[in-house]
Amino acid sequence: MMNIHPVKGPIAANGERAHEADHPTSLVAQFGADQPLRLECGVDLAPFQIAYQTYGTLNADKSNAILVCHALTMDQHIANPHPLTGKPGGWLTLVGPGKPIDTDRYFVVCSNVIGSCMGSTGPASTNPATGKVWGLDFPVITIPDMVRAQAMLIDRLGIDKLFCVVGGSMGGMQVLQWSVAYPERVFSAMPIACATRHSAQNIAFHELGRQAVMADPDWAHGRYVETGAHPHRGLAVARMAAHITYLSDAALHRKFGRRMQDRELPTFSFDADFQVESYLRYQGSSFVERFDANSYLYLTRAMDYFDIAADHGGVLAAAFRGTQTRFCVVSFTSDWLFPTPESRAIVHALNAGGARVSFAEVETDKGHDAFLLDEPEFIDIARAFLHSAATARGLGRAER
Amino acid sequence: MAVQESLPLGTSERPMLRVHRADHLLVADMVETGSKVLDVGCGEGDLMQLLESRGVDCRGIELSREGVNRCVSRGLAVVQGDADTDLDNYTDDAFDYVILSQTLQATRQPKVVLENLLRIGRRAIVSFPNFGYINMRLQLLINGQMPRTENLPATWYDTPNIHFCTIKDFVVLCDEINVKMERAVALDRYGRPLRLNAPWWFWNMFGEQGVFLLSRAQKKPAASPGDYIAP
Question: Which pLDDT band holds residue A59 (cuts at 50, 70, 90)?
Fold first, then answer.
């Protein structure tokens, strides 16, 4: 039988996802009307909330806190099962007891970014002024806005200086923004597989994804919550396209090649004959269960707007001048979304600014996603960098 | 056992006490404690680690990915880069010393690299294999073949060393680009310094490598008023 609907959507998940947006299975910091989040677009967002997870224990002088900044479609559940999907934590290769981001040694904070849909205020949240879901009435946010919100959370937690800020991809952009906006609050920084600005090609891929969402009739100009639908087909296509950019030709070839899915011969139809098609459809349909379509529009937009040099008179080095932060920049050989030259540009700017910086390019065929995977060379580098930074910060070993 | 797990690989793999190379010890002795150093071509970071253990703030550049990753996993601040192209990105006077250890002969433009070293650093420490070493000369003279030694085992067709020079050549270059030699040491094949009062030709013949502490020479002094001759 021919599969004419490319992707099946789980309507049942809508309610659960909507509930999580306002009442997350997480710690929540509320900010009232007296503490607005001043957004770059000129709007003061108030009231708003930040959903976050913590792991480990803050030491007495509050010097062992690591802020993990999550990537585009990830969230704060980096080292615990996900409340919607039940899958294990999103960054267990790096975060946990005995891992490089050792929760026996460090106090780890990860907050859902503003504009996302896992409990921090975003387009999927209820607008208290109207009692309805924000949808497209939510103001457009930027990476600096996300970081400003995180800084308010870190203030709320009583932490003056973070021991380290770590993140990959969009998380890496936040790390760079942290080190530029609050250099005195960041002892060390690990921007991984990222860039100081989003490239034209990456903006183009994001536009493709957004157009796929908006072309779905169920999107209803962003008012799908009122119609009770969710543009799962459009969002799934967006995810499928994006997912290809997270992998590499070599990895796709190694994992799937031209192998057929549960069949020997082509069906001469548009069914998922190839394993790679089946895999992508699965990626698309599982994504829509947990992610809000409007959030996807807002977060991709935030990445598009990111350009640190533009905020510093076009001179990237000026952004990092005189920084005392210790940096470890990491890129991956087969990452074509944030290729090594992007990381090299960060390193050149840091060198010109006199920063203490390490930079390693890790050889892998796993593409951009490598930073989330078990990549021993990368994990060793993260462990050693954090260990030497901890020694410099005067942090003792883990007590066990 | 749990504590062992949290050790970075860099320190758990290697013994705590290590034997330092003779030329590294010599270079390290030239660097003042508390200064800021850039090691260009830092390899696996042995010299950097020696310097950091002596209270020197050290950064490194290394061409090979394996070398860089090894350094970073030893906790050293090293970036992947090329002495020929990436030194341009560093600002003037960014370091107290810039070290180029056994790397000059592998650069495409040794003169430009040398000038860059003394732009970025107030001082430069350069060590290189001496192609005028008696063993080298004899191999070429008697065997009629490109010399190979224990320290330079590569054949002519796969060597990364494309710009060999002798100690004498290097001294001439320093004069040419107005570089002041603050200290010069020639080491024999065992890494021992040759007699200090030996003449240049002796060093050029019996030194297997040269180690130089360089600084920018004063600009040629402007003619003093007394020298001025009215037209």
Answer: very high
ipTM value > 0.85: no
Any B CB within 8 A of A390 CB: no
A368 is catalytic: yes
- Report the gap between the CA of B80 and the closest CA in chain A (Å): 6
Catalytic residue among A125, A169, A188, A343: A169
Contact residues, chain B, for A385 at CB < 8 Å: 72, 75
pLDDT tens digit sequence for A129-148: 999 999 999 999 999 999 99
Q: How confident is the model at residue B18 (pLDDT cuts 50, 70, 90)?
A: low
- The alpha-carbon gap from A398 to the nearest alpha carbon of chain B, in Å, equals 8
Q: With an 8 Å Cβ cutoff, are B79 and A357 in contact? A: yes
B58 contact A CB<8A: no
Q: Chains A, B: CB contacts under 8 A, how many?
A: 84
Complete domains list, chain A, with CATH: 2-199+306-399 (3.40.50.1820), 202-301 (1.10.1740.110)
Enumerate the known binding-site residues of A for substrate: 239, 369
Q: Contact B5/A380, CB-based, under 8 Å?
A: no
Q: Which of B66, B70, B72 to mutate to test the interface with A (most CBs of A within 10 A)?
A: B72
3-state secondary structure chain A: CCCCCCCCCCCCHHHHHHHHHHCCCCEEEEECCCCCEECCCCCEECCEEEEEEEECCCCCCCCCEEEEECCCCCCCCCCCCCCCCCCCCCCCCCEECCCCEECCCCEEEEECCCCCCCCCCCCCCEECCCCEECHHHCCCCCHHHHHHHHHHHHHHCCCCCEEEEEEECHHHHHHHHHHHHCHHHEEEEEEECCCCECCHHHHHHHHHHHHHHHHCHHHHHHCHHHHCCCCHHHHHHHHHHHHHHHCCHHHHHHHCCCCECCCCCCCCCCCCCEHHHHHHHHHHHHHHHHCCHHHHHHHHHHHHHCECHHHHCCCHHHHHCCCCCEEEEEEECCCCCCCHHHHHHHHHHHHHCCCEEEEEEECCCCHHHHHHCCCHHHHHHHHHHHHHHHHHHCCCCCCC
Q: Is the whole model's pTM more than 0.90, yes or no?
A: no
A335 is known as an active-site residue = yes
pLDDT tens for residues A328-387? 999 999 999 999 999 999 999 998 887 999 999 999 999 999 999 999 999 999 999 999
